[in-house]
Amino acid sequence: MLTKLQTNTARGEGAVSIIEATQILPFSVARTYHIYGVKTGVVRGHHAHKKLNQFAVCVYGAVCIMLDNGEEKRFYTLDNPSCGIMIPAQAWHTMEWLRDDSVLLVLASAPYDESDYIRNYEDYLRQRIKEDGHSCDNG
Ligand code: TYD
Q1: Measuring from atom 18 of ligand 1, which residue has the nearest CA?
Q2: Which of ligand 1's atoms lies nearest the C-alpha of 31?
Q3: Distances (CA, A) of 130 to 11, 70, 123
Q4: Residue 9 maps to a domain
Q5: What tens-digit pLDDT sequence spans the chain (139 residues)?
Q6: In testing the pocket of ligand 1, which one of 35, 39, 44 has its CB within 8 Å of the most ligand atoms?
Q7: Domain contains 6
Q8: Which residues surround ligand 1 with Cβ inside 6 Å?
Q9: What's the domain count of the chain?
Q10: What is the pLDDT of residue 133?
Q11: HSE value, Cβ hemisphere, 13 Å, CA-based, for 104
Q12: What is the pLDDT of residue 74?
């Protein structure tokens, strides 16, 4: 699920990694933000989005992204600025800082909207069950 970005390297001059939005992203970018100044071991996120799709790149350092669909958790280490990962709508996710001062760049499909967040895991699971039609609740 990691996406390798087109990367041009020049000997002795480092590298350029490129996100051509129309080729890499299944959405138009409406917003970018970057998270930084975080100490090793800190875990951020702990939420899902109802509709927002995001693509994350750790442009410096290392961050572990956990994606949880309510049934299964998957962990992805972003420790190379030439790779990114989709954080799709409806995925419960966390971001754990593996190195001090890592910088996580996020491209998002919509402007900030607090009402698009699901911040409570129990609510998230309830909503997933409802959508999947597997509810055991007879009420
Ligand atoms: P949040 O998305 O909860 O951070 P994280 O997932 O990294 O733990 O955002 C942290 C705070 O910043 C929260 O109060 C909302 C605010 N915020 C905005 O105002 N605009 C934004 O685009 C983002 C991403 C966050």
Answers
A1: 112
A2: 22
A3: 54, 12, 11
A4: no
A5: 899 999 999 889 999 999 998 889 999 999 999 999 999 999 999 999 999 999 999 999 999 999 999 999 999 999 999 999 999 999 999 999 999 999 999 999 999 999 999 999 999 999 988 877 654 443 3
A6: 44
A7: no
A8: 31, 33, 35, 44-45, 112
A9: 1
A10: 65
A11: 28
A12: 98
Comparing CA positions, the residue from 59, 53, 62 lying closest to residue 86 is 53
Report the CATH number at residue 39.
2.60.120.10
Amino acid at 108: A
Q: What is the pLDDT of residue 132?
A: 74
Residue with tokens 């909207």: 113
Atom 16 (ligand 1) nearest CA: 112
pTM tops 0.90, yes or no: yes
Domain span at residue 121? 26-128
CA-closest candidate to residue 58, choices 8, 101, 21, 10:
101
CA 105 to CA 35: how far, in whole Å?
A: 7
